[in-house]
Design brief:
5 helices; globular; single chain; 150 residues
Amino acid sequence: MINKSFKKILFYTYLIFLIFVEVPINIKAFALFFEGQDWILLTLAIAVGAMIVLWSYSIGHLITNQRSGSNFISFVSFVSLFSIIYLLAIMRQKLSDISNISDFQNILEQDIFNDRFFIPLGTEGIILIILNLCVVSSIVVVSYLFTKKA
């Protein structure tokens, strides 16, 4: 059997690893707004990755420790987390849309920067959602197993 301290080290190493896995997934979402500012892009991608990982961990922890109202809190947390992931996908899709347009006049004609929240996502946005949801689900499952009472 694995002792508790090794299990904790392995678990927290896994969480830190997934924070850095999130960086290349999310860095393109900020590239449109902070073009040429690599440190800001990296800092934002690490911060968002850490937020997604820690939020996912707390959802798994809430599922493990069922108390009155924790199902509602878990649901609201997941919906909020999915909203953030969806916003990242929209940002990534906007970058993809702009990079596919050849000149500035076409950007103005196509109204890329409209205020709509629900836009149809292309391949890039859907891939970002799928990758982020894979990370979220793995963290929820691992945190559930880690915090589960034997």
